[in-house]
Amino acid sequence: MEESSIFQDYFLLRIENIFFVIAAIVSTAMLIWPAVGKRGTKEIDTRKAIELINYEDAVVLDVRDESEFAAGHLPNSKHIPTGKIEERWVELTKFKEKPIVVIYKSGIRSNHASNVLYKNGFGQVHNLMGGIDAWKRASLPIVKR
């Protein structure tokens, strides 16, 4: 075997390994990003939400649209649609030291509202996994206007 051929094989092997290393780094970053992206928010189930509401005087923040909120919501919940949270979060300032349970229809878009609250100094922000749908499936109380 020629020396230049050995060098070329070695060089190609190194390049292939670099691509594997880069792919591994990108894959790891993609797996970690959702946890990092949530920042200070935590996902909780209905059992933990009830515990926070009953024993720690948690504030329930419903970020669904007006019509969804009017159709049924948790008792004593505050309502700020997710599209207005950036301009209206100050309404919740007096609750900064309390746990806040953020609720949406299925729990997906509540992350935006939770992140806005967290960025503005709310340290105990929780998203209800499954949102209002999970609450209803558990046959927990819903009130209408």
UniProtKB/TrEMBL annotation:
Name the domain of life this protein comes from: Bacteria
Q: PROSITE patterns annotated for this entry?
A: RHODANESE_3
Supply the alphabetized keyword list. Membrane, Transferase, Transmembrane, Transmembrane helix
Task: Mark the transmembrane ranges.
Answer: 18-37
Q: Name one GO molecular function term.
A: transferase activity
Q: InterPro entries of this UniProt entry?
A: GlpE_sulfurtransferase (IPR050229), Rhodanese-like_dom (IPR001763), Rhodanese-like_dom_sf (IPR036873)
Q: Start and end of every Rhodanese domain? A: 54-144
Q: Pfam families, from UniProt?
A: Rhodanese
* UniProt protein name: Rhodanese-related sulfurtransferase
Q: Supply the source organism for this entry.
A: Nitrosomonas aestuarii
